[in-house]
Amino acid sequence: NMDGALEAATQMGTADLIVDLVSSGVTLRENLLKEIADGTILDSTTQLVGNRAHLAEDSEFGERLRTLTRELLERTEAHLLGRSMYNVIANIRGSSMVDVGRKLGSQTDLRGVDGPTISPVVPPADFDSGMYAISIVLPKKKIYSAVQQLRKVGGSGVTVLPVTYVFEEDSMRWLSLIEKLDVSSHQIKAL
Predict the structure, then answer these.
(1) Quick one: how far is CA 146 from the chain centroid?
(2) E-only strand ranges, the chain
(3) Using CA atoms in the order 13, 16, 18, 22, what is the torsion angle rounded to 10 degrees?
(4) What is the pTM of this model?
(5) Within 4-142, where are the H helices?
(6) Residues 157-181, buried b or exposed e (16+ Cβ, 10 A)?
(7) What pLDDT digit, counting tens, does each position of 43-88 carry?
(8) Cα angle vertex 161, ends 159, 164, to 5°?
(9) Strand partners, 95
(10) What are the strands of the beta sheet with 117-120, ordered from one edge?
(11) Are the C-beta atoms of 131 and 123 separated by less than 8 Å?
């Protein structure tokens, strides 16, 4: 049993292998440690296990259980979808939001998941109007081509932020569960 700087455990002979979360890699280099090639130690899955009778129950307990289950399923689904997505934000000049929308629509990677969000930018006192902020959610693999396309249509000040969750209109996992439980519509109306 060791406490403290586990990085030294391999050099002290008390461990053959250690597991550590790395941000900069400085600790690895300082302690002559090597990263595992793909960084994966264990692949795992999550299984939600529940009592079907209680989930389908037409009672306050059943409703609370369904509410909790729905939240767990939706958060999980939204996180899994969001972890590969990025929010690209930029400024772009145009005569109107429609004009900016047409410029973005002319480029294949600037349409986003559900289309771009376009908002007017309030200009400083010494600038004229006609600047719009756009926001597009894209998969990681399309970021660089989207930046190039934004530049092509006059975009500037491009920032890219990771997305934590993407909640769809409906959760497919939740709808599938409700169908399997054969829960009546009055039991799920408040959910």
Answers:
(1) 18
(2) 85-93, 117-120, 131-139, 155-162
(3) 90
(4) 0.67
(5) 9-12, 26-30, 52-56, 60-82, 97-105
(6) ebeeeebeebeeeebebbeebbeeb
(7) 888 888 889 899 988 899 999 999 999 999 999 999 999 999 999 9
(8) 165
(9) none
(10) 117-120, 131-139, 85-93, 155-162
(11) yes
